[in-house]
């Protein structure tokens, strides 16, 4: 559509926008289980709104003009690094999300391998389990590296031996998830990082989901396998603040064991009339609102605030999990460690169950290989847990009469 010849009436314009939005997922009603991570707390929403609005127009591209943003970014990076035991010599930057953090890690390891080991881009490869986030394949595509996805085991974790076999002299990065998005299970990070350490290659522990979950689970007494910089083979970690850090999109952190590696992230250019241009991530102009909101919410909640949210969240997760497991034929896939569950039915079509849940307004994701349903549980879901289990029980008992999921989703 062309730009309107004349400006539109504000009331009519926002009426139209609200009408369009009415067809979106109703995350604020607790019926969405991915993409958004609502706490259901008005005080948290107010903090995010105020911080975001304070920096609605600022541009994080230039820290000289906006030194407050530089300070806030350094604080978020340092606090996130402390959660996952980044060593004193380590460093990091913020990014727009997990995909960009992952892209920066792959870039750093590609260019490190090029400089330190003489591996050209066309020859380099990355090795990861098929359960790793798709952003690793995307990064390999953008950076012209060979992607080597390795099939996972029957318990949905990385196959250590198969991944070790896939590593060769041109491997620039080995990858594991703590924990993985598809099934919520922990890869054997210690064993994988040891392989990388022995072979002298980078290892990325992907904690885009887990970085603001696992440290608090550990403090609450849960058994959490090693996954962070306490393992000497871990060279990079990706940590999303806009998931279980509860800030607005998009705010992530990429961490390095050595701060000097951040130099590989930077693009610097001075051969144009406006002088030096430099950025540590893909974006030039960077929205300041998410950065300010991340600073505000992490300081507002603090350790005790996050611990309380996690304690309540795991209670909700346990309630939903027991409700799922009580449904005849339904089972949880793997051994999920946090507030992410993937489940399937052995008696009826899992997608048919999801079809009926869609009809009742729920938004579950669909996994493949095997077909299963996927949910990331947030604090707001405590308010709807009983209703969800009741509707899921109904859907499972009526799925044999669904309207043909194969035609609708495959």
């Amino acid at each position: 559509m062309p730009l309107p010849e004349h400006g539109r009436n504000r009331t009519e314009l926002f009426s139209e926008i609200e009408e369009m939005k009415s067809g979106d997922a109703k995350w604020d009603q607790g019926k969405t289980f991915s993409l958004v991570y609502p706490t259901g707390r008005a005080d948290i929403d107010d903090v995010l709104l105020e911080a975001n609005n304070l920096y609605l127009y600022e541009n994080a591209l230039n820290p000289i003009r906006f030194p407050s943003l530089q300070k806030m970014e350094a604080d978020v990076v340092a606090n996130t690094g402390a959660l996952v035991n980044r060593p004193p010599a380590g460093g990091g930057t913020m990014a727009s999300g997990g995909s960009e953090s992952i892209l920066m890690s792959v870039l750093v390891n590609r260019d490190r391998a090029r400089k330190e080991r003489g591996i050209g881009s066309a020859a380099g490869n990355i090795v990861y389990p098929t359960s790793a986030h798709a952003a690793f394949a995307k990064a390999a595509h953008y950076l012209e590296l060979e992607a080597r996805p390795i099939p996972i085991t029957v318990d949905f974790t990385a196959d250590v031996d198969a991944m070790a076999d896939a590593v060769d002299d041109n491997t620039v990065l080995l990858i594991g998830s703590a924990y993985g998005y598809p099934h919520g299970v922990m890869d054997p990070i210690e064993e994988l990082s040891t392989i990388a350490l022995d072979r002298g290659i980078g290892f990325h522990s992907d904690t885009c989901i887990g970085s603001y979950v696992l440290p608090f689970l550990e403090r609450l007494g849960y058994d959490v396998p090693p996954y962070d910089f306490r393992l000497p083979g871990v060279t990079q970690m990706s940590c999303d603040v806009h998931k279980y850090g509860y800030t607005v999109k998009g705010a992530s952190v990429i961490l390095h064991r050595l701060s000097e590696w951040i130099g590989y992230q930077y693009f610097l250019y001075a051969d144009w009339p406006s002088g030096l241009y430099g950025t540590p991530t893909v974006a030039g102009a960077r929205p300041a609102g998410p950065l300010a909101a991340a600073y505000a919410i992490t300081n507002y909640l603090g350790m005790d605030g996050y611990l309380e949210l996690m304690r309540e969240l795991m209670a909700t997760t346990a309630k939903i999990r027991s409700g799922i497991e009580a449904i005849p034929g339904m089972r949880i896939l793997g051994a999920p460690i946090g507030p992410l569950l993937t489940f399937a039915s052995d008696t009826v079509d899992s997608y048919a169950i999801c079809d009926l849940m869609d009809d009742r307004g729920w938004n579950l994701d669909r996994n493949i290989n095997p077909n299963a349903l996927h949910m990331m549980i947030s604090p707001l879901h405590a308010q709807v847990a009983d209703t969800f289990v009741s509707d899921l029980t109904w859907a499972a008992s009526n799925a044999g009469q669904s309207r043909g999921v194969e035609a609708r989703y495959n």
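Residues 32 and 115 are 45 Å apart (CA to CA). The chain has a mean pLDDT of 94.
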